Please model this.
Amino acid sequence: MPVVDITKDLDALTLTIVADFAAPVERVWQLYADPRQLEQVWGPPEYPATFVDHDLAPGGRVTYYMTSPEGDRYHGCWVVGEVAAPDRFAFDDFFANADFEPDTSLPASHCTYAFVERDGGTRATYVSGYDSAEALQQVLDMGMEEGSRSAINQIDEFLAR
Model:
């Protein structure tokens, strides 16, 4: 499985996931740069994602929704801060309403995704920072760790196709 470590740090207000992929950095980058590819692995398999807008550039927005097995939609949006292709990008990640506006009643995270070459493949480090320990605990209670593990663990298989 690609996920090799998950660290929850309530003092640093971060959730860090480290994964190793059997594909070069550029190929992993392409997955995040192409919304049709990203749809195949964003979120747990039982909650498929649909990306509506995908502007992976500084100041850009990425909007999407995930559909539950019962047909309910859960919306999200990113506000992209930094992009240094193919090595890293950073964004603020929000739960959103149906109009893709941030839902301020739920925690937002400040994310940095970094990719480095490792043994011919890619080591990905996903860091999500929160404004408070309560916000981090809330997303952990919502199943963020399990959902992220499930989503990331499907990337290798997708990249091998």
Notes: DSSP finds five helices and eight strands in the chain.
